[in-house]
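Please, structure for the following, as tokens.
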Amino acid sequence: MLRPYLCWLNQHQFHGIKPGLFRIVRLLQKLGNPHKKFPTVHIAGTNGKGSTCAILSSLLAEHGLKTGLYTSPHIFRVNERFKINNEDIPDEELLEMLKILKTYAEEPITYFELTTALAFLYFAEKKVDIAVVETGMGGRLDATNVIYPEVSVITSIGFDHTKYLGNTLEKIAFEKAGIIKRKRPLVLGKIQREPLQVILERAKALSAKPFLFDKDFKITSSNKFSDKVWNYEGKYTFFGLELALKGSFQGRNLALALKALEILEDRAFFVIDETKIRSALKKVNWEGRYKKLKLFGKEILIDCAHNLEGIKTLKETLLEDGFYPFLLIFGATNEDGEKPFPVLLEELLPLSMKIFLSEFQAERKVVTLKDWKEALEKRRIEAEFFKSPNEALKAALDSQEINKIVITGSIYFVSEILKVLKNIYK
């Protein structure tokens, strides 16, 4: 019974990206405005927002709150987008939600608008105590921006989706700042001076108190490599925190989640318990983020670095971790036709002994092998080309001279790789 409804939902992927709130507002009104029935935390940012959502969700659930979590895209199944206390929505409940949506949805409407409405409907039906909501793209015109959160978080500002968000960091910051709400606190990650000024001006206009990373709260690590122990300093000080998510960049995401947790305590949601914090951080799971595994004698590292800021962060972490030289498997999307995908590749060239580029299936425009060949010919970069992630991974595992493999790029690409690996492990 679920399959035909999933087919109906998936048909809306072809409607593409259509920023604007009027369609989602109309649908939510028909559904009884479920998004107004529970408190929320709203998290935006070019990179790090998914990990921050996962960390905060785990912290809230460990403190006894029935916690909804809405993120996108998914890796294996659409159910992953809708979690309560880290459990995916069961198929039977997903079916019920889709039946309701199909009854009330008016065309045209996008896939993301439908999944956003589904998340709000599900969380309202299950009477969550709070929900952590990740934006899809930008903020101001994102379908999630119908909520009035207890606290807003902006993790970072970088270049991505420039066709929709603007071609300067200031324009992108303006879009992300759209999630700021009047007199509701704002937590800000490490953001460059010019875009930060745009955000702070918006916060001031709305009397939203900002809390700045490295000023109002800080994080340091106790050792050099990616398997770090973290020390947090904010309203509280916590030493020796162990986070299940690896990678030096996760420290900033951890700090943002802890600051948001402190603000929620100030807003009388719970009393912070250090023991629960330590327990929660060891349980955090966020698929495809600096994930290491061993297979057929190879060390494999997988990370969803899909824009220039993300690639640079990954490069820094690989250098710090000593995880190089490696065979690189890379796949990218270019939805707006403006992503500098050859530049992303060039960032990792100094650490790469060999490069495998692959096409893959995605709901967004994929960089084709033809695109890659044309771009690399101009730059005189040598690479091997594969029609599918499966073929690229098989060739990498068969390679004799290189023991380290890094797989990165679009989340949709990494999803395809993880599906192949899942079948191998079976």
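The longest strand covers residues 352-358. The radius of gyration is 21 Å.
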